[in-house]
């Protein structure tokens, strides 16, 4: 059975996430050279994105590696989450909500341990789509083809029937390599037009081909 499907990224698509400069502010506050935070924390950030460290473990490592007390480490993590979560892209979210019942809906996100709980509480993405695939829960990040395969398998859809939307070109290219149709998010208007065209075309059937 075929089904038309739309799968979206979160950060930069469903969430508006401009850089806030929080890392640089912490480096200035701690009198550290620029780049020190990422140099010291890069393996922890990676572990958090694929779920090999707990959220508590992240905060503990922040305190140890940056020399922060418990209060400072909590404030550091609050700044991290403020940039990570951004603000909701209300117009696109409202449009996607209107697609419920017309197609299968999913989310595929490179994420960080703790993201599901926060995004559910703030934005209720669990009520917007049928399935959310987070990298920290499956241990695989985009552009790994396994991430796209997991999203399609979870929704029980064929890759060719899916339109994937992301703000990173490398992920769009990877989705296409996985057999999906894909669209680079550069604004709501063009994205909504692309989704509408995808829905009008319907699912692929034998002998019928669509160019992404």
Automatic annotation (TrEMBL):
Record InterPro entries: HAD-like_sf, HAD-SF_hydro_IA, HAD_sf
The name of this protein is HAD-IA family hydrolase
Q: Which UniProt keywords apply?
A: Hydrolase
Q: Which organism is it from?
A: Streptomyces erythrochromogenes
Q: For this protein, what is any one GO molecular function term?
A: hydrolase activity
Q: Name one Pfam family in it.
A: Hydrolase
